[in-house]
Design brief:
With 356 residues, the protein is mainly α. The protein is built from 14 helices and 2 strands. The relative contact order is 0.08.
């Protein structure tokens, strides 16, 4: 029976490989801090298997997280260069990347190959013209394979036993699809070195920095909040100040609460169980006999309004700014604030008019 542990180990191995590339890059100004950060993360994926099996203490992972927080918080990670210079064929000399200071990567080609090396804008434009729509093939492999494995995988049995462990089909499909996508990308694009996928992955990880881990951390925070009974506590407070019998006030509080908790937690899915336990189910559904499907669907949309305006939603707001090398890393948030405010009010009105 195949479990999803192999995927966690593969991810851990990738992070460790990136750490090795960084630590061997003597021209990198922050190589030790970066290598330690991603190396610890990689080892955590391996160690987590034994924690889940209850054969190793979990406090070790807690210490690892605190060390990573210290490394990121004290500025020992990330890149610091306005110019990326490559020293391998087809990797170009790079271009200005934004408001950051110099990175410590050499300003002219040297005998060492920096993990930050990448193609220049002109080279990327030339490659886009050369490969055309074939560039999308690797990206399409991931969802196609993931859907096929998640759909058909649970049906496969060997000797009467299922091939995939219960609940592992989706992760297994995603893992297989990702591996195949890398193989297809190498076959189609023919990079100058077989290690190019790892080097490019390492470059993107450093460009994103610690924000790459926010979704994982925030999902854990949501579980902790739910288990701690935060929803019940919030519900008690809200009911004590909510005007009795006022449907409009209840709708406003629910939608506004979804947005605010999403801003705090960075994820509407983490905010949903808290606000639903506090006011969504007991007040709007049971108290005002509302339509659960409509209330909760519109409530999630209200939460997404909070996603648009919070740096905690790094995968939506900070990561694009880093990948696009914007001078203002909060630029996406500033641009989205008016839209978020209008949508939040609209969601309140729609819920009030159609859900009851």
């Amino acid at each position: 029976m195949i479990t999803s542990e192999w995927l966690y180990w593969l991810i851990g191995a990738f992070f460790i490989a990136v750490a090795v590339l960084i630590v061997t890059d003597t021209a990198h100004a922050k190589r030790l801090g970066n290598a330690a950060f991603w190396g610890i993360l990689g080892l955590s994926f391996f160690y987590g298997t034994f924690v889940a099996a209850k054969t190793a203490p979990s406090w070790v992972l807690g210490i690892a997280v605190l060390v990573m927080v210290a490394l990121a918080g004290l500025g020992f990670t990330g890149t610091t260069s306005r110019t990326r210079v490559a020293s391998i064929p087809g990797a170009g000399t790079g271009a200005e990347t934004g408001p950051a200071e110099p990175t410590g990567v050499a300003t002219k080609p040297s005998s060492s190959t920096s993990v930050l090396a990448t193609t220049s804008p002109d080279e990327r434009a030339a490659f886009a013209t050369r490969f055309g729509n074939r560039l999308f093939i690797p990206a399409l492999v991931v969802p196609v394979v993931a859907v096929l494995v998640a759909t058909l995988g649970p049906l496969v049995r060997i000797g009467g036993d299922p091939l995939l462990a219960e609940g592992s089909a989706t992760l297994t499909g995603l893992g297989i699809g990702s591996v195949l996508a890398v193989v297809v990308a190498v076959f189609v694009l023919r990079p100058p070195r077989i290690a190019t996928p790892i080097r490019e992955g390492g470059r993107l990880l450093q460009a994103i920095g610690w924000a790459a881990l926010l979704p994982q951390m925030l999902s854990t925070l949501g579980i902790v909040f739910t288990q701690a009974g935060v929803g019940d506590a919030v519900g008690t407070i809200i009911k004590s100040v909510l005007p009795e019998g006022s449907l409009l006030a209840a709708v406003v509080v629910y939608c506004l609460g979804m947005a605010l908790f999403t801003i705090i937690m960075g994820n509407a899915f983490a905010a949903f169980p808290i606000m639903t336990a506090a006011i969504g189910w007991p007040v709007l559904v049971q108290g005002f006999d509302g339509n659960p499907a409509a209330i909760f669907a519109i409530g999630m949309l209200a939460g997404f309004c909070g996603t648009l305006v919070t740096p905690m939603a790094a995968n939506f707001n900070l990561v694009p700014a880093a990948l696009l090398e914007m001078r203002d890393k909060y630029g996406p948030i500033k641009a989205q604030i008016p839209t978020a405010a209008v949508l939040l009010v609209v969601n309140m009105g729609v819920m009030y008019l159609v859900a009851f």
